[in-house]
Design a protein that fits this description.
8 helices; binds S-adenosylmethionine; single chain
């Protein structure tokens, strides 16, 4: 037990950054109570206990496959690179598709305590748009995703249309753009940047350089939310960004860039 609390490990080495799994589980339990409510969370925990004792009870309440509150969105599944339409030259740098938990994301975002209306939100490697949908619950000035895969982008476009039909968009705009993250220019306004381990260190560095140039004149703090930060060294070594927090036992890392001479 003591080892479990104080050891940083990765459940999926090579795919996942080592983190304090005990702290992550604690925060995950808290987030479940916060967003799913007491009854669903308790049933979910009981379902896990039943499966540990090989009892075929309550399994429909298991948490997995329930990462999204809006279950009518098409965000499920893992798309390996070899099964995707991403061109071969990107296979070295790109990560496979898998959606993040919108509950974790919302918890991290809400703790920034920012004025959403001041900010644009961007997801580099937005896939089917799970986190775009979660971000669009907040009154951001704009929510934009940039995704390399045409097929995943097409799913995101359908999800955005569905969100619109259900009046589930609080942000002023919600857009998925198909293309390479390194080629995307940001308008010079305050940004919340989000990456779920979408690419390797070289691409991350190129994206960070572009962000730094594009947002050079922005005076408000710029936040970089890095989920499963496999290449956090790029941000650790950046002269502009500082570590802000490491929620979920370090499974997430949040960095902030504060302007040198704020007005
Ligand atoms: C782990 S998924 C993250 C999906 C989504 N952001 C989320 O949090 O649910 C990473 C995504 O990054 C995309 N990707 C990889 N390299 C990219 C690049 N250079 N430009 C844009 N998207 C890229 C992949 O196609 C994949 O859909």
């Amino acid at each position: 037990m003591i080892r479990f609390v104080f050891t940083r490990t990765a459940r999926y080495p090579g795919f996942e950054v080592p983190h304090y799994q005990f702290l992550r589980n604690l925060r995950t339990a808290f987030v479940n109570f916060k967003y799913r409510g007491f009854i669903s969370t308790t049933l979910g925990i009981l379902a896990i206990a039943c499966s540990k004792f090989k009892l075929p009870l309550l399994q429909k309440y298991r948490f997995y496959q329930q990462n999204m509150d809006q279950r009518w969105l098409d965000t499920d599944g893992i798309v390996e690179l070899k099964n995707s339409d991403i061109p071969d030259e990107f296979h070295q740098s790109a990560s496979r598709y898998e959606a993040a938990s919108d509950y974790e994301f919302r918890d991290v975002l809400e703790r920034l305590a920012i004025d959403y209306g001041t900010y644009n939100f961007i997801d580099y490697g937005s896939g089917k748009g799970a986190i775009l949908a979660a971000a669009a619950r907040y009154p951001f000035n704009a929510v934009t995703g940039i995704e390399l895969s045409q097929a995943l982008h097409d799913v995101a476009v359908r999800n955005i249309a569905e969100l619109g039909r259900r009046n589930a968009i609080a942000s002023k705009s919600l857009t998925s753009v198909q293309g390479d993250a390194t080629g995307y220019h940001l308008p010079a306004v305050p940004h919340i940047i989000y990456v779920f381990n979408s690419f390797g260190a070289e691409v991350l560095q190129a994206v960070l350089d572009r962000i730094t140039t594009d947002l050079a004149e922005v005076q408000e703090p710029v936040y970089f939310l890095y989920n499963n930060p496999m290449h956090h060294i790029v941000l650790d070594e950046s002269a502009e960004f500082q570590k802000f927090s490491e929620p979920f036992g370090g499974k997430w890392m949040i960095f902030v860039r504060k302007a040198e001479n704020p007005v």
